[in-house]
Amino acid sequence: MITLKITKPSGDFTENLPVLSRKPTRGLRQWKAVAGGIVRDLSLVLLIVLCCPFAYAHFEEVHVLIDAGRYTEANNKLEALAESAKDIAVKSWCYYQIGEIHYNYTHQYNRAIQAYDKILKLEKSGLAAEELFLAIIKKGDVHSRMGNYQDAIQTYDRLIKLAPASHFVHKTGLQKIRDINNALADLREQQRISIQYKGTPLAAIAQFQIAELYRNHSQLNQPEKAIEKYSSLLEAHPNAIMAPEARWRIAYLRHTVLNQSALAMATYRKVVEDYPTSNFAAEALFQMANIHRIAEKYSLAIPVFEKLKQRYPNFWNMHAVLYWTGVCYEKILNYPKAIEAFETFHHAYLPQLDPGYLGQISMHDKSVSEVKAQIEKKIEELAAQMSEVELERLNKASADRDFSEALSIARHLIATSPYTPQAEQAVERLPRLQQLTAIENLREKLQDQNLAPIEAARARLQIGTIYERKPLQDYPKAIEAYQEVLKYHAELTHAAEALYRSGRIYAERLSTPNEAIHAYKKVIETHPNTLQAMMANFQLGELYRGLHRYNEALQAYETTIGYPERDRYIAGGYKDSFADRAQFRIGRVHYEDRRYNEARFAFEEFIQNRTQSPRLAAAYVYLAAICENRNENAQAAYYYKRAEDLLTDNPVQMTTLIEEASVLGNLQVAADSNTVMQFIKENRKRLATEKAESNQ
Predict the structure, then answer these.
(1) Taking a C-beta distance cutoff of 8 angstroms, is the pair 403, 431 a contact?
(2) What is the DSSP letter of 349?
(3) Residue 95 structural domain
(4) Residue 350's Cα: distance from chain center in Å?
(5) 73 and 125 share a domain?
(6) Do 190 and 130 sit in the same domain of this protein?
(7) Tens digit of pLDDT for each residue in 204-262?
(8) Which of 1, 310, 500, 560 could form a disulfide with 582 if both were Cys (CB 3.0 to 4.6 A apart)?
């Protein structure tokens, strides 16, 4: 086998990937070796076999037997076919497959050599030179695999003598001999280092390099020996920096070279378990998934691919993970998931993908644009069959109150068929499904008998808040959830929060102020020393003010101020708090109750004590209105000027002024900054005019 060294972008390892092979498990294939512009095509062999019904029938049987691991039966079938075949190309192919079985699967290397020797004996019968060259290369590889390097060199030397100097295989023979000699020299040097620096990190590196020499097909080509050396390294240096790679190498050799899938799977799993933070854990998961995929066990491959995506999102080969995930989902007829994977591959990875990495998805012979076209066609085909069915599944899942499944279907439908009417419906329903699924998940947690009380309280409170938010806004359901908090967790602060939020719903959403007042009072009564009690006092003040129960409002605001302040720092260096709002509202209560002297005193005290308040401009506007009411125009003009100065290029003060003044009936200020400034300027101008007229 002629190999091409590919460097992985992770920087962790290099891997030899075959570019010239004929695999018995996949039958006869066209094979090509490209070097120096020379391409050889042996598809003629395939044509010979396909033209012979007898040979083709046996080939199918052999294929099934090899896939089932029944190598002895496959060997016997091939020998019988070779014996009965009259065409030397068919005989050659049979012997080649027998050699491959014993080289790659049974590891009975002497039998492999016997098979390749039978091909070489066909030389006098007129076998094509390419077939002879390949048999010689394979025989030399088997000698290397057995550790018979001198025999391997002699075999490659025969290849050199047979092929013209300009021929690709002549150069291949020379290169193989050089590689073996260089590897043997390097082996002696690494053995010397290992002995000289025994027990040190340098010895560990030398042992690893020895294993690498045995592993590499183009060097010493003894995978069993490599596994032995890697294992010795792991035993002697379990914490060496190359330990994860050594374990992974063992698995990869068993997987790709020795075809020992069960042992490979077990070793890959050990890489994931023992070295979870290593890049080789991701590599191991990728190979585990591929073992399942190639065995057509797609349902087993999918969770491994998904685990890889979740645990190692920066995996260098993520484009292949996405592509093969899509293939597996397609195979099990889960078109939404297949399309999602293909779409992600298409839009997120393919545009930036180096064409050299297309081989990871078995498309090394295609350009990026060709792959793009192929993926787009695949997505279109799947989507055409899927959208209607998926909408029906979505409707059924929703009707069954399986919101988690409905949400999953909706998301897939949107991702895979974004421009269809069905997807538009899914988009509209998505926010609601997300919230219902969140509630479903929280309800499921509450079924856990071992759930801590504090977590249960948190879950029930969260259910209520979800019902409150858009698009559900199911306020009766929110109240029910909050009542559950009170029922099961009355002693916890979560109960105070549930009562407080219930009060807000009664007051602001259901327009039932009496129920709101009851809820707020219960917060204050049952949890007096809480943030919720402070906020409940403020909300009581708001309710009483709206009901024109001004004395009760004043008492509630005064109580709010008595709590420790909980400042919130906002833009422009301002500080806001419930105490700040409550003190301002005291002035507003007096103003609305036409107690202007008390209102004036309250706003003046507010300005003096709340120098960092976002409501300073609003306080000045109220003071200006009070002064106008009392015909103190000069003072009113002064306050308008102070408000204007604060409001200029100050969105914080402007926002709070609009909030505080827009609800005040006596001061009609529209909720617009330009209108506010115009209002103040016009008032200042009017007051100045009136002053000028009075002085005449």
Answers:
(1) no
(2) I
(3) 2-146
(4) 17
(5) yes
(6) no
(7) 999 999 999 999 999 999 999 999 999 999 999 999 999 999 999 999 999 999 999 99
(8) 560
8 A C-beta contact, residue 266 and residue 288:
no
Instruction: Tell whether 77 and 139 lie within a shared domain.
Output: yes
Say whether both 241 and 333 belong to one domain: yes
Distance between CA atoms of 527 and 521, rounded to whole angstroms? 10
Chain segment 368-393, per-residue pLDDT in tens: 999 999 999 999 898 888 888 789 88
Rounded distance between C-alpha atoms, residue 144 and residue 176, angstroms: 10
Q: How far apart are CA 443 and CA 408, in angstroms?
A: 18
* Cis status, amide bond into 471, omega within 30 of 0: yes
Dihedral, CA of residue 476, residue 480, residue 483 and residue 489, to nearest 10: -140
Treating both helix axes as pointing N-terminal to C-terminal, what angle do 88-101 and 53-67 enclose, rounded to 10 degrees?
0
Residue 568 CA to residue 68 CA, distance in Å, equals 71
- Domain end among 124, 146, 168: 146
pTM here is 0.54
Q: How many CB atoms lie within 10 A of CB 508?
A: 13
Q: Which two tokens stand for residue 267?
A: 């070793």
Segment (H or E) for 674: helix 673-695
Which H or E run contains 90? helix 88-101
Q: Are residues 132 and 190 in the same domain?
A: no
Residue 242: which residues within 8 A CB-CB, separation 6 or more?
Answer: 204, 205, 208, 233
Question: Domain holding 322: CATH number?
Answer: 1.25.40.10
Which of 601, 598, 603, 648 is CA-nearest to residue 621? 603
Paired strand residues for 304:
none
What is the number of structural domains in the chain? 3
